[in-house]
Amino acid sequence: MAKTPKKHKPAFPSKEELLAFIRSAQGQVGTREIARAFHLKNTARAELKRVLRDLSESGEIENRRKKLHRPGTLAPVEVCDIIERDRDGELIAVPNEWDEEAHGPAPKVRVMSSRRAKPAEIAGIGDRVLLRVDPADDEEDPIRHKGRVIKILDRAKQRILGIFRKNPAGGGRLVPVDKKALGRELAIAPNATGDAEDGELVAADVVKQGRYGLPSARVKERLGSLKNERTVSLIAIHAHSIPNVFAPETLAEAEAAKPAHLSGREDWRKIPLVTIDPIDAKDHDDAVYASPDSDPNNRGGHVVCVAIADVAHYVKPGSSLDREALDRGNSVYFPDRVVPMLPERISNNLCSLKPNVDRAALAVRMIIGVDGRKRSHSFHRVLIKSAAKLHYVQAQDAADGRLDDVTQPIKTAIIEPLYAAYRTILKARNERGPLDLDLPERKILLKPDGTLDRVIVPERLDAHKLIEECMIMANVAAAETLEKAGIPLIYRVHDEPGVEKVEALRELLKTLDIPFPKGSVLSPALFNSVLARVKGQDVENLVNEVVLRSQSQAEYASENYGHFGLALRRYAHFTSPIRRYADLIVHRALIRALKLGDGALPESADVASLGEIAARISASERRAMKAERETVDRLIAHFLADRIGATFEGRIGGVTRAGLFIKLDDTGADGFVPARTLGDDYFHYDEKRHAMIGRRTGETYRLGDRVRVKLVEAIPVAGALRFELLSSGQHDRSARKSLGKPPQASKYKTKTARGKSRKRRGKG
């Protein structure tokens, strides 16, 4: 029998061979990869580790995250921290682990936007990301690397906002402003206070904490005293990293801008367009005009003109103004200030359609039939001169016959034709059947010193609806024009409700004996029929709230899937380019499609690149909404802080296992009632009914129910309110039956005389 040949034992690699392999490898390698490459068995790995340790100690290789790497170079995949934006608005990152003493400053990586990134996948300054790193395309670029985000590892949590509380012995504590972090204070060492004063709002970096004791932080920025309520909006600005200071070159561009002239434009200065805005509006970017159509083939029809400030004339693609506008995405509106998308020289001056002043505009002329439907439209680049500046109440008063010095001369020629056109447009709107949710909006009114005066819910007037319908028609016309021309654009899209949310709504309606059949084609009209059925009933608020929660969130996208809520197949934002970057993109696209002059959308802009922009500005919009909401909550908490013990009327605005969220009638403030304080029972959360139900008594607290509460705690800096429920719940036998048999008596919760929960103990 032939002998089996002996396998040759692989020779152990020399240091030179190991170094050559590591240097030639594409990126980082570990002991496993080296052992495989040199066919080393387990018995040789101990020696391999010893040799590699020697090489590491001598500085010939470095060990990062248990991987070996050539010193001073970046791997194809790196964990990086995003530290800043460059002049073009692109994010810049540096490797998370880098030995500056050995290799000098950390190399910078320009972060390239993901082609199809969703808002939640957009990285920002302060984030830690996993990047795929490649050499820069431009050899002359001082930033030698580019990278694409593979995954966001950690959002910017290292910096935290809080109130500094000084310790007489030195140092102090940081009380976070975030509601979720309440009760989790951080220690500030004496040498880390940044000279902050007691009670100041500060930004601090969290220092790596040990296993025991409070985490520590170092003050990085003093933001002002909270004794001044005007500082409240600063909390949201800094907490959400909202850009609020324009770069010098951006301001210089704005100051250098000159008013537009008639050259290259149609002269619309004799058309008596008017602006209709809130009474406190500082910029006026849309103007309207309507007249009866003189065409005998359209008897009873109207001509409606909508003129929008020509922001594209002043904000050119690639300019500093453009880069900052994209970075901001939109203007952010706080009760005491506005963080504008564009400098005031542009937003409040050159692009504000002031009365009796020549202003550049992009306008659409729409022909409306007697049935209210748009028959045709055309876009024009024009010069206008607004005939009057009106506010909503003033316009409505004029329509109702209550005239003043401004509206008296224009009632017959301007106001009456506008309202006539609006009544005609309503026919088509009602036939289309958009989602009809009653969603009153609260408005904060401040005193001259910046403190809260009162909270109001402005009346919804026909003047509001008139402008809204004119703007919707103009937006549809813009989308139709660009689709027909084959020019990419950013749509305003609103998807239909998801299956799970619809099923949750169906389950709730089932408990109310309201049919919502499975397999129904979803449409706004279907939801409207449900809302109409409960109009005026006790459950109206409950059903309105749940129908609202079942809806998807509107966003921006470069690919169209319609607007469910408005019942429109195509829709774009065209009417507010001063405060929304999406509208500016649509303006540029129209200029390109119709060859209307300078400021057009670049030819390089395609669906993919606009998709990246849409994702960014959708994220910016949500950031702004959250910041605005939090600021209102904080202002109201300041307002109520000295009313501990007062009672209020409200409604249950949310139900969770943890307790009830209460929305007060007079201020719209939101507060919380912990489940443990509800009553002398064990309360079970019924997700289908949106209710807390007492197992023993059947006492029920349901979403939308009217309640009376007492304020027991207010934390102004976090905008947090805690209430005690004074109202009894409803007694719903069917709800109690749905829970099955109650637990043993020993599991019932009761309340002591002090209001604290305890378990009732059974005998034996």
Topology:
Elements (H helix, E strand, L loop, with lengths): L14 H10 L6 H7 L4 H16 L4 E3 L2 E3 L7 E9 L5 E5 L4 H4 L5 E4 L15 E8 L9 E10 L4 E8 L5 E5 L9 E3 L11 E8 L8 E10 L6 H8 L8 H9 L9 E2 L6 E4 L8 E7 L9 E8 L10 H9 L3 E2 L4 E2 L4 H7 L7 E11 L5 E12 L2 E4 H8 L11 H22 L10 E4 L5 E5 L5 H24 L5 E3 L5 H13 L12 H10 L6 H11 L4 E3 L23 H14 L12 H34 L6 E10 L2 E6 L5 E5 L8 E4 L4 E4 L4 E4 L3 E10 L4 E6 L4 E2 L1 H5 L11 E3 L5 E3 L5
Parallel strand pairs: 5-7, 10-12, 13-20, 14-21
Antiparallel strand pairs: 1-2, 3-4, 3-6, 4-5, 6-7, 8-9, 8-11, 9-10, 11-12, 15-16, 16-19, 17-18, 19-20, 22-23, 24-25, 26-27, 26-32, 27-28, 29-30, 30-31, 31-34, 32-33, 35-36
Give an account of the 3D structure.
By secondary structure, this protein is of the alpha+beta class. It has 6 domains: 15-69, no CATH class; 77-154, OB fold (Dihydrolipoamide Acetyltransferase, E2P) (Beta Barrel), CATH 2.40.50; 159-227, Beta Barrel (OB fold (Dihydrolipoamide Acetyltransferase, E2P)), CATH 2.40.50; 248-493 and 557-628, no CATH class; 499-551, no CATH class; 641-759, Nucleic acid-binding proteins (OB fold (Dihydrolipoamide Acetyltransferase, E2P)), CATH 2.40.50. α5 packs antiparallel against α16 and α10 (411-432) packs across α11.
Short description:
Helix content is 28%, strand content 26%. By secondary structure, the chain is of the alpha+beta class. Helix 5 runs antiparallel to helix 16, helix 10 crosses helix 11 and helix 12 runs antiparallel to helix 14.
